[in-house]
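Please describe what follows:
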Amino acid sequence: QLRSSDPGSSCRQFCRKTVSAEAEQEDIEVQYLNGSSANGCMHPCGAGSVPMGNVEFSIGAGAGIEYEVSADMCLGNCATVKAGLLQTVSCSAVLPGSKKVSKVGNAKLCCVTEVCPSTTTTTNTSAIGENFTCEDGQGPAFASYRHTGNNSFEACAALCDQDSECKSFDFTGANSSHPELFSLTPTLQKKDSCRLYKVAQRRSLDVGASGRQFCRKTVSAEAEQEDIEVQYLTGSSANGCMHPCGAG
């Protein structure tokens, strides 16, 4: 710091070091995810989180994050950037074409976003609709385990349909959000137009201020049979009596 502009009786000059961008970035930690040199989807379509070391990045969460999870989009090449003491660096400088998709503390996740392959995204609305039955109402209070900004039946249903833990969801066409303060990424506007549940019970017929619909997965005969256990006795592939006649 300069004391004053007075050069004193000896006409002194004050000089300070300049900190180049290269020197500033020495404090910045950049780590690339495995496989980040490849193109295409590196994570499942609509993935809600990405683990990196001991940190679980919630996609679409954190200060200044505008990216929203979408069932028809996936994350490709990714890198984590931990800000240094002097400054941080933009995602595009670390990974060209990437954007900031999550932030935890002073660490941010930069990813290139990709459109999911057509085999994943061409499921038509009628096919998705056959997997769910919907009615006015909301899911159980405080029981949702995932929230996103997807505000259409198709997008929210696709997220639930791809998640084996999801039994039901509710959604609204409005842009809905709530404060979420007690989390690793606190925010005053956690987007929740789409909410997923691990149970199939509806809370009530009350649609709430945003006019929600509650949808539960339908159970097909094929899916029901996944819970049936069949065990064959030793030798059951052979013909003839396997036990004594009249065995009690």
Summary: The first strand starts at residue 29 and ends at 32.
